[in-house]
Amino acid sequence: EETIQDLKTKIDELKSKLEELEKSHKVYPKVKFFPLNDQKRILITGGAGFVGSHLVDRLMREGHRVTVADNFFTGTKSNIEHWIGHPNFELINHDIVNPLYIEVDEIYHLASPASPPHYMYNPIKTIKTNTIGTINMLGLARRVKARLLFTSTSEVYGDPEVHPQPETYWGNVNPIGPRACYDESKRVAEAMCYAYAKQERVQVRIARIFNTYGPRMNLNDGRVVSNFILQSLRNENITLYGDGSQTRSFQYIDDLVNGLVSLMNSNYTKPVNLGNPDEYTVHQLATIIRDMIGNRNEIIMKEKMEDDPQRRKPDITIAKEHLNWEPKVTLTDGIQRTVEYFRRELNKNKNNQHNGETSNMHNFYYLSANEEVEVKNKNYKIEL
Ligand SMILES: O=c1ccn([C@@H]2O[C@H](COP(=O)(O)OP(=O)(O)O[C@H]3OC[C@@H](O)[C@H](O)[C@H]3O)[C@@H](O)[C@H]2O)c(=O)[nH]1
Q1: Chain-centre distance of CA 6, in angstroms?
Q2: Does 182 participate in catalysis according to the annotation?
Q3: Per annotation, catalytic residue among 108, 119, 157, 182
Q4: Is 120 in a helix, a strand, or coil?
Q5: pLDDT of 101-133, one tens digit each?
Q6: What three-state secondary structure class fits 175?
Q7: Which atom of ligand 1 is nearest to the CA of 211?
Q8: Residue 302: phi, psi to the nearest 5?
Q9: pTM, entire model
Q10: Domains, the chain, ranges and CATH?
Q11: In the chain, at which residue ranges do the beta strands (DSSP E only) sit?
């Protein structure tokens, strides 16, 4: 007869076997080997988001130690799950509106909702993230003597009266309009970066990011590229806000990531536009995407968005000169890769629903003050 002790030993053996099995199943993407002293410790705020997660991939592959701080407001764990458990990787569920105390060498500060419907619904939270959140990150950079790269936006130029937009243009922003929570808080965040640079000698870098698209955009993110792809794949009407004559210049995510890393590592300290200067009307974009997917869905007009910038195209002379950077991926190539991703995600959803599992599709729930809501099957409380 087996004693309790025997049974316990057996259970322990089984437990460790299970643990080993679990470990051996997780296969990580390859990372370069770095001697410990050359590894940089890098914090990425918003690292579970669309842009952030691609940056995580790049820096992890280079062999650095990467910490992601994200509150999963618009980011998702699935964007970075392939790194979870890797010894060089750490994920912190943290809202940067609260201070963060860690030791790092570099901070890529990306955390902020970026899609207009997202940042407009909870404008106070958007403002807090870009102002208090940025102060917190600048404070951290000062304490630990880290270099900080802030991801600003082409929206600092507002509805521009200068075309294309060079970094020297001061912009045309409506300070009380529906976009102000984003535009103005990004503008003040830039001002704060330079105040910390001047007064506290913090090393700062500012990227002004123009419209960017690619895999891992939220399917229902609300921006033009994701909307048009989803509408075309589902054979639904393509919705132009206004007559579609407004223009944008669309950059593929890989180009942006190269630009961000080059900027962080350069000596150039003034703001730098990162975007693809190929300009299209929104109507042109609709036909390009529809033709590529091969459906015959209709293109219809809806109400125009208030304060919607009418023309947007980056002047990238500075990035070319100082970073030796320019975008490489054409719109057709980039859209093709993005469509493939959307197709895969939609199929995944279908399969998951068949299995009775919850949908993998990232559902966005608008959060209001102190309201407790379900986000991705988890209770999420947002504080204002
Ligand atoms: O379904 C849609 C969605 C959008 N649009 C239009 O397409 C254009 C682009 O809209 P998006 O929402 O994709 O993005 P916007 O250019 O307005 O803002 C973006 O600018 C730069 C970044 O900082 C931000 O990610 C985002 O705010 C706008 O003119 C918008 O009105 C449509 O016509 N139909």
Answers
A1: 52
A2: yes
A3: 182
A4: helix
A5: 999 999 999 999 999 999 998 999 999 999 999
A6: coil
A7: 21
A8: -120, 180
A9: 0.88
A10: 37-379 (3.40.50.720)
A11: 41-45, 65-70, 89-93, 106-109, 147-153, 204-209, 212-213, 238-241, 247-249, 251-252, 272-274, 279-281, 299-302, 372-375, 378-381
